[in-house]
Amino acid sequence: MISIIIPTYNEAENIGVLLSHIQECSTGIYTEVIVVDATNCGITKEVAAQYDARFLVSEKGRARQMNAGAKIAAHDILYFLHADSYPPKNFDQLIESSINGNTIAGCFYMGFDSKHPVLRTSGWFTRFNNNWCRGGDQSLFIKREAFNQIGGFNEEYTILEDNEIIPRIRSIGNFTVVQRKLITSARRYEAHGVFRLQLIHACVHMGYRLGFSQQSLLNFYKKQLGE
Predict the structure, then answer these.
(1) Going by DSSP bridges, is the β-strand pair 175-184/85-86 parallel, antiparallel, or unpaired?
(2) Which CATH number fits domain 2-185: 3.90.550.10, 3.30.1460.30, 3.40.50.300, 3.40.50.2300?
(3) DSSP assignment string, 122-173
(4) Of the four listed, 24, 72, 74, 98, which is most buried by Cβ atoms within 10 Å?
(5) Which of 74, 75, 55 minimizes the C-alpha distance to 65?
(6) Is the pLDDT of residue 30 over 80?
(7) With bands split at pLDDT 50, 70 and 90, how would you rate the model's confidence at 209?
């Protein structure tokens, strides 16, 4: 059985759409959804309750929020999903089949809800199983035993926490990319410009590879986006 963990921050307007999508696209293998909110938003809590999702308040930070959700999860497969990413039809069956195979973790490849050629190209590359093409928007499923073995998400990471965890997963077992498309929102690209945001992301990833601190990467990212 699968526990779905969704970290949220100012997602009151979107969480209902995702929870409805999960119900429509599931085969019923998952039995719980845990919404881990960093703002204790009453509207988010109410919407979660409407879809029989558990609601948890956590300190802000996706790594912290996802770890908090994992601690109270009831099942042996954990599925971490961003609030603006929509998994494919029968996603839970696909996850279970992958875990029952020779793998301990994996994700789906990704497409944007946009026809912009740059975003279509960027999404196309995520079908390849290498660390350079991974990101949290693709979601992440993992055996609880493996998640506990590697110590979960690194809470010192305030950015790129999803990229940091993948090499640690690969160090103890097989990681797979399920060849079905997950759709993620292009809202940030629409707000800040596709080419500009792609360049910002490239700079952040390069800085990460060069060993820049988490705080410096986060400061750069927020400054560029005016946050």
Answers:
(1) antiparallel
(2) 3.90.550.10
(3) HHHHTTS-SGGG--GGG-EEEEHHHHHHTTSS-TT-SSSHHHHHHHHHHTTS
(4) 98
(5) 55
(6) no
(7) confident
Report strand pairing: 140-143 vs 77-80: antiparallel
pLDDT at 177 over 80: yes
pLDDT digits (tens, 9 = 90+) for 132-150: 777 878 999 999 999 999 9
Bridge partners for 56 per DSSP: 36
Two structure tokens written together for 145: 């035993």
List the beta bridge partners of residue 183.
Answer: 86, 111
Which pairs with CB-CB distance under 8 Å and at least 24 residues apart come from 97-100?
98/141, 98/176, 98/178, 99/141, 99/143
Q: Distance between CA 170 and CA 195 in Å, rounded?
A: 31
Q: Which of 58, 52, 43 is nearest to 4 (CA)?
A: 52
Q: What is the DSSP code string of 16-75? A: HHHHHHHHHH--S-EEEEEEEESS--HHHHHHHHHTT-EEEE--SSHHHHHHHHHHH--S
Rounded Cα distance between 12 and 44, Å, is 5
